[in-house]
Recover the amino acids of this structure.
């Protein structure tokens, strides 16, 4: 049963009121523009446009296709096209040469909300056509254009995450950031007319918002107003995409799992700035030293047991791939709360934590230099260097491991598939090349992958779908990379009907399995042995099930 009276300290952090006035100040304006674009100014590709063309360059990740002569036209004008996707928002850039070449680090950036059916793969080319004058202006004045494309209005405020990714990808400051407000004035309104849109100064006093023009384009300056100081844990659990399915938010809140998350949210609620002296004192009072550092212009943070440097005792280190960019002072709080259990272990003297991430594998190589710097400052046991990351940072953690496997002792990924995606049905950062698989076959690497109930394609996809067929290939590639005995596709399929409860829930064949009941959740755990019998590959799938309905103990000892 759901006991709505089960309570604990800080349960109030699950209430929206706890995060009032901490969301992005620009988001209500952005959302209003998106909703209005969706209702009145939706971009539709004419049926005859690009008709019968087969020479397009497809990008499955962003549901888009591009045409060479269109991109070349703008390339000659000094603008390069780049496209990506985050959640339900597809976004693409027109980047001036000076930005791509690293000569301009603080460009003016114009965010342009667009509404279209992005399952019509021609949408990006149509938007480029309709916004030709904007591109001309960008080419003339060196402006970065960010087209934020939504199929339906973005209710989860993914714009903040998109902007963070933009800054990390191209090493840009976001100090000159503008939002296109043409839609507002196109409706005969002013910014003062937008509901729920409040503009505050640095002292928290309300301002009367006014638009300005950027080379003739009506804009609102959102520099310093786009960041959000709302808990990432809270935002994720309450996001629109979490509704439905098996996830019950109320049951989650009134559970041990909700309690553990609330403990972590305290950090996100109490602090907003990386350099707040009280943040250092918070961790010092718990037995850890919090530090903010910079290497080659990129910020990273550390959490080290108090007295570790003086003791000289060698400690393992966990490299946590999580963004800490100076573009958003709140990011370190999000990073530490997301890995709060590790932070507690650091405070207890068990390990040293380093947090850092950028947005390409090459840029993330800087983490190795950071590790070397950290090793000079603290007693790090270089035989016990571990890496971890969630979602795309999990892919980056694995790529980092492949590049530095001689110095890595193990990997833990979260929110990643149990398979390794191959060419032909995936793109960056998920794609693992055949060469990378071949490399992984040359060494042993302990790896545990943990995914949630909505992330297991081996049970969620229809067995007769093309996507599931790709996942069968992906799991075979995972087995090959870990030097495990190969399974046929028929053997992988059969796991969905296995008599072993945990194996059936995982949807892939394993050598040993167990169901662990943790924080009120069932966790299905599987071990796959390699050709030498080493149990280096482990798969976990956590579910929203809150009843300990079945347990299996198929092998003794700790998992």
């Amino acid at each position: 049963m759901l006991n709505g009276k089960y309570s604990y300290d800080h349960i109030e952090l699950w209430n929206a009121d706890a995060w009032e006035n901490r969301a992005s100040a620009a988001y209500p304006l952005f959302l209003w523009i998106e909703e209005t674009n969706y209702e009145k100014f939706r971009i539709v590709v004419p049926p005859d446009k690009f008709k019968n063309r087969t020479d397009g360059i497809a990008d499955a990740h962003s549901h888009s296709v591009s045409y060479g002569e269109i991109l070349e036209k703008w390339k000659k004008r000094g603008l390069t096209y780049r496209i990506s996707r985050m959640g339900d928002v597809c976004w693409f850039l027109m980047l001036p040469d000076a930005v791509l070449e690293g000569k301009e680090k603080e460009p003016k950036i114009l965010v342009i909300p667009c509404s279209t059916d992005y399952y019509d793969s021609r949408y990006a080319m149509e938007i480029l056509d309709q916004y030709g004058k904007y591109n001309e202006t960008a080419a003339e004045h060196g402006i970065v254009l960010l087209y934020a494309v939504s199929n339906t209005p973005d209710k989860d405020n993914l714009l903040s995450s998109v902007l963070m990714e933009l800054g990390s990808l191209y090493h840009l400051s976001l100090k000159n950031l503008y939002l296109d407000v043409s839609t507002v004035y196109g409706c005969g309104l002013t910014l003062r007319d937008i509901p729920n849109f409040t503009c505050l100064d640095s002292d928290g006093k309300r301002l009367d918002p006014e638009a300005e023009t950027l080379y003739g384009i009506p804009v609102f300056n959102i520099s310093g107003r786009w960041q959000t100081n709302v808990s990432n844990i809270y935002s994720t659990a309450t996001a629109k995409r979490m509704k439905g399915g098996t996830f019950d938010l109320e049951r989650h809140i009134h559970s041990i799992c909700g309690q553990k998350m609330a403990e972590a949210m305290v950090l996100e609620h109490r602090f907003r700035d990386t350099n707040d002296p009280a943040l250092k004192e918070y961790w010092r009072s718990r037995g850890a030293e919090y530090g903010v550092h910079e290497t080659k212009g990129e910020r990273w943070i550390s959490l080290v047991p108090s007295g570790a440097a003086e003791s000289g005792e060698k400690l393992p280190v966990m490299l946590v791939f999580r963004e800490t960019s100076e573009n958003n002072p709140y990011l370190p709080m999000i990073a530490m709360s997301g890995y709060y259990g590790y932070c507690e272990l650091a405070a207890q003297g068990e390990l040293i934590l380093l947090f850092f991430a950028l947005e390409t594998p090459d840029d993330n190589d800087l983490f190795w230099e950071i590790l070397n710097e950290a090793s000079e400052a603290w007693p790090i046991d270089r035989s016990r260097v571990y890496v971890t990351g969630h979602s795309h940072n999990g892919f980056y953690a694995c790529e980092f491991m492949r590049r530095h496997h001689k110095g890595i002792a193990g990997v833990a990924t979260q929110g990643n598939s149990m398979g390794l995606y191959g060419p032909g049905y995936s793109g960056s950062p998920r794609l693992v090349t055949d060469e990378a698989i071949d490399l992984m076959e040359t060494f042993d690497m302990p790896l545990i992958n943990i995914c949630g109930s909505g992330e297991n394609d081996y049970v969620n996809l229809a067995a007769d779908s093309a996507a599931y067929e790709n996942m069968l290939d992906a799991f075979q590639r995972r087995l090959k990379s870990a030097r495990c005995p190969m399974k046929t596709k028929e053997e992988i399929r059969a796991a969905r009907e296995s008599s072993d409860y945990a194996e059936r829930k995982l949807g892939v064949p394993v050598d040993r399995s167990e169901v662990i009941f943790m924080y009120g959740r069932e966790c299905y755990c599987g071990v796959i042995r390699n050709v030498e019998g080493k149990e280096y590959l482990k798969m976990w799938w956590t579910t929203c099930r809150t009843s300990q309905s079945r347990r299996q103990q198929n092998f003794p000892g700790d998992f």
User: Anything to note?
Assistant: Residues 466-481 form the longest helix (16 residues). Residues 545-559 have pLDDT under 50 and may be disordered. The chain has 22 helices and 21 strands.
